[in-house]
């Protein structure tokens, strides 16, 4: 299965953004914007945000 999502666009960060900015964007989306399912967000959308964060927080996966 090919993943055609733009993880940078999902997290609203620039491709050159440091990990700290990626982490901050993730936290804002999940907590303050209440996109986490426990806070009333959609499970599928939260799963996509989690996938983006998992890929971009890891330097090796991010390079791929």
Question: Quick gist of this model?
Answer:
With 64 residues, the protein is mostly helical. It contains four helices and no strands.
Spell out the blueprint of helices and strands.
Layout: H1 7-11, H2 19-32, H3 43-57, H4 59-63
Helix pairs in contact: 2-3
Write down the overall geometry.
Answer: globular
Low-pLDDT parts are none
Number of strands: 0
DSSP helix fraction? 55-70%
Question: Main beta sheet: strand number and arrangement?
Answer: none
Give helix and strand order, one letter per element, not per position: HHHH
Whole-Å distance between the termini?
Answer: 16 Å
Kindly report the average pLDDT value: 90
Which structural class do you get from the secondary structure elements?
A: mainly alpha
The rounded Rg comes to 12 Å
Overview of the molecule:
It is a single chain. It contains four helices and no strands. By secondary structure, it is mainly α.
Task: Jot down its keywords.
mainly alpha; 4 helices; 64 residues; globular; single chain; 0% strand
């Amino acid at each position: 299965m090919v993943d055609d999502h733009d993880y940078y666009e999902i997290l609203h960060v620039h491709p050159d953004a440091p990990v700290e900015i990626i982490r901050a964007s993730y936290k804002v989306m999940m907590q303050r914007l209440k996109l986490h399912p426990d806070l009333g967000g959609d499970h599928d959308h939260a799963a996509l945000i989690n996938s983006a964060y998992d890929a971009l927080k890891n330097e090796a996966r991010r390079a791929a």
